[in-house]
UniProtKB/TrEMBL annotation:
Gene that encodes the chain: fliQ
Major localization class: membrane
Protein family according to the UniProt entry: Belongs to the FliQ/MopD/SpaQ family.
Protein name (database record): Flagellar biosynthetic protein FliQ
Organism: Corallincola holothuriorum
Membrane topology qualifier: Multi-pass membrane protein
Length: 89
């Protein structure tokens, strides 16, 4: 296996991981920002007020994007299996 092939595989894997994590984290980050602005405007310092909406949005995001996330991971895995002969030979 050449170093270029290893770098290509690593780059593809890193892209898949970053894409999947960003799809889950970005909605939670947006809700966290909205709640933080609301807390700053109203001077409410309740910890559960910032945690619970982020948890709910993260779970809803996982629920709605589960099909897409599994499809992306399966496509990556299938491509890795197809590239085994090129990596070995």
């Amino acid at each position: 296996m050449s170093p270029e092939m290893f770098v290509d595989i690593f780059r593809d894997a890193l892209f898949v991981v970053l894409t999947m994590v960003a799809a889950i984290i970005l909605p939670s980050l947006g809700i966290g920002l909205v709640v933080a602005v609301f807390q700053a405007a109203t001077s409410i310092n309740e910890q559960t007020l910032s945690f619970l909406p982020r948890l709910i949005v993260t779970l809803l995001t996982l629920m709605f994007l589960a099909n897409w996330l599994v499809r992306v991971l399966m496509d990556f895995t299938i491509n890795m299996i197809k590239e085994i002969p090129m990596v070995i030979g």
